[in-house]
């Protein structure tokens, strides 16, 4: 019962724009977040189909249910895994099941389709994305996973050579062209009940979300921080790359997400990790236990605007959205600046599942401006979608150009670690003395989450940082020349 009541409340709130679906799910404190999230996402996906059935069968009048509750119950009754409640609701829905099923069947006949998925509104991007699966190399090999799936009737087409190879049908699957442990299947292939998934041999992870750990690539034995880690897909990917050797410090502010993460890491066979329920911004970079940290993965809370299933169907209040993005960007910049304070840091990957430049290029540009000893590393030359100019070293991902959810990745490296070769920074970041200092991350900060973060000082630095960067550094150069001239005259 509680599952359906909570799911219905969340759908109602999401419709009234009271928060992003993902956040509403986590905020609900429901004991089985995964189950709730799946139900809410799927019901929203099939919302128009369910509404049509409800209206044409007059279900609300017959059952006295409200629309959101009717939708979640109907989803599980007709499309999902069957009703998971008893009592009056179940009896009521079961009574009307024959007419509801008949209406669904009539819809399929009218639209000349056989599968429920084919009833979804045409062009819904989520339903056209391949189902990506990351092979967990801590538990198996890509070869063994492929053989297992072949034995089960899937047909393996080898490694993709072009992006359009990833448009798959029936039981076909292939190895991705960019990421060596990622397999691609036709859209909506369901692995939730599959042995390989339940045993932790495969992880259901979008291809774009596999980029951060793949690009950071910490060697086995290294010391690594995953700053905002839960629910831990990227942590388990890092551990696989590190072959479970070294130390992987994983922080998250949300205890509930962290405990889900702990279960997932156990299932994935991860053993080199150390979880901490902590605000990353309060972690002391000079604490001796982090003295050997050379790699950081920072995947902070973001608007989630790249997640196709979470995208709002109608635009939210513009002013509210602007303020929310500014607060998120401010938090993201603080995390980024804080990460760069770890004394032995060599490389850091920053990622978001947002499509807004305010949370992506603008955060990175502002950070580079405040940290001139770091520069951008050009990423995957063969990747088809780049960061917005001038940050083309970064990667973007989207449903249209990369057949993934929307995503952004940047990699920063310490300039002094480039074997003594002082290369040109990715964006003009010289003359640091003229740039206002980065906000101290020791300062007391309010709790930062996707929905709630402070909009403080760093925010100003963020505003159109990308656009202004060239202009401001020209001015700075002029001022520096003037100062030099003045000094020289004094010396004379
Ligand atoms: N990297 C994760 C993965 O791949 O599974 C997803 C991370 S999610 C985008 C962002 C996470 O940051 C959330 O779990 C949130 O609880 C956490 N978070 C937000 N503010 C934080 C803070 N100040 N310190 C640590 N974690 C924080």
UniProtKB/TrEMBL annotation:
Among the GO biological process terms of this entry, one is:
rRNA base methylation
**Keywords attached to this entry:** Methyltransferase, RNA-binding, S-adenosyl-L-methionine, Transferase
- Catalytic center residues: 353 (nucleophile)
Where is the sequence biased in composition, kind Acidic residues? 448-460
Basic residues compositional bias: what residue ranges? Answer: 475-492
Q: Where does S-adenosyl-L-methionine bind?
A: 228-234, 252, 279, 299
What InterPro entries does its record include? MeTrfase_RsmB-F_NOP2_cat, MeTrfase_RsmB-F_NOP2_dom, NSUN5_7_fdxn-like, NSUN5_RCM1_N, RCMT, SAM-dependent_MTases_sf
| GO cellular component term of the entry, any | nucleolus
A single Pfam family, by name? Answer: NSUN5_N
PANTHER family registered for this protein in UniProt: 28S RRNA (CYTOSINE-C(5))-METHYLTRANSFERASE, NOP2 YEAST -RELATED NOL1/NOP2/FMU SUN DOMAIN-CONTAINING
- What protein family does this chain belong to? Belongs to the class I-like SAM-binding methyltransferase superfamily. RsmB/NOP family.
Put simply, this protein is called: SAM-dependent MTase RsmB/NOP-type domain-containing protein
Organism, as annotated: Poecilia mexicana
């Amino acid at each position: 019962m509680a599952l359906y009541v909570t799911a219905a409340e969340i759908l109602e709130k999401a419709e009234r724009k009271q928060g992003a679906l993902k956040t509403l799910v986590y905020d609900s404190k429901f004991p089985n977040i995964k189950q709730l999230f799946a139900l809410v996402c799927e019901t929203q996906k099939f919302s128009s189909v369910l509404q049509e059935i409800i209206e044409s069968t007059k279900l609300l009048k017959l059952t006295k249910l409200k629309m959101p509750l009717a939708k979640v119950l109907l989803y599980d009754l007709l499309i999902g895994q069957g009703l998971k409640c008893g009592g009056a609701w179940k009896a009521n829905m079961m009574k009307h099941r024959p007419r509801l099923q008949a209406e669904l069947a009539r819809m399929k006949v009218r639209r000349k389709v056989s599968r429920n998925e084919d009833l979804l509104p045409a062009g819904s991007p989520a339903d056209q994305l391949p189902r990506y699966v990351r092979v967990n190399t801590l538990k198996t090999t890509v070869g063994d996973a492929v053989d297992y799936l072949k034995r089960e009737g899937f047909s393996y087409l080898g490694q993709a050579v072009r992006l359009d190879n990833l448009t798959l049908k029936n039981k076909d699957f292939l190895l991705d062209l960019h990421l060596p442990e990622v397999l691609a299947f036709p859209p909506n292939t369901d692995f939730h009940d599959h042995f390989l998934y339940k045993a932790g041999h495969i992880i259901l992870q979008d291809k774009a979300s596999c980029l951060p750990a793949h690009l950071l690539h910490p060697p086995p034995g290294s010391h690594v921080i995953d700053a905002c880690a839960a629910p831990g897909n990227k942590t388990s990917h890092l551990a696989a790359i590190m072959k479970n050797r070294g130390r992987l410090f994983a922080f998250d502010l949300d205890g509930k997400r962290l405990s889900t993460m702990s279960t997932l890491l156990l299932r994935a066979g991860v053993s080199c990790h150390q979880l901490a329920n902590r605000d990353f911004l309060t972690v002391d970079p000079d604490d001796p236990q982090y003295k050997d940290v050379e790699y950081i993965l920072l995947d902070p809370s973001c608007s989630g605007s790249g997640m196709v299933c979470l995208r709002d169907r109608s635009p939210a209040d513009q002013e509210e959205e602007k303020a929310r993005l500014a607060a998120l960007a401010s938090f993201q910049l603080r995390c980024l600046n804080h990460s760069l304070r770890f004394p032995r840091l060599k490389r850091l990957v920053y990622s978001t599942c947002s499509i807004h430049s305010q949370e992506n290029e603008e955060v990175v540009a502002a950070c580079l401006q405040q940290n001139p000893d770091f520069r951008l590393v050009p990423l995957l030359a063969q990747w088809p979608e780049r960061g917005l100019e001038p940050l083309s070293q970064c990667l973007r991902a989207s449903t249209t150009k990369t057949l993934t959810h929307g995503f952004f990745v940047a990699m920063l490296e310490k300039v002094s670690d480039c074997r003594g070769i002082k290369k040109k920074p990715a964006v003009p970041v010289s003359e640091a003395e003229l740039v206002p200092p980065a906000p101290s991350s020791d300062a007391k900060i309010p709790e930062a989450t996707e929905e709630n973060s402070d909009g403080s000082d760093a925010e100003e630095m963020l505003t159109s940082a990308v656009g202004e960067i060239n202009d401001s550094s020209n001015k700075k150069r002029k001022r520096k020349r003037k100062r030099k001239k003045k000094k020289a005259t004094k010396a004379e």
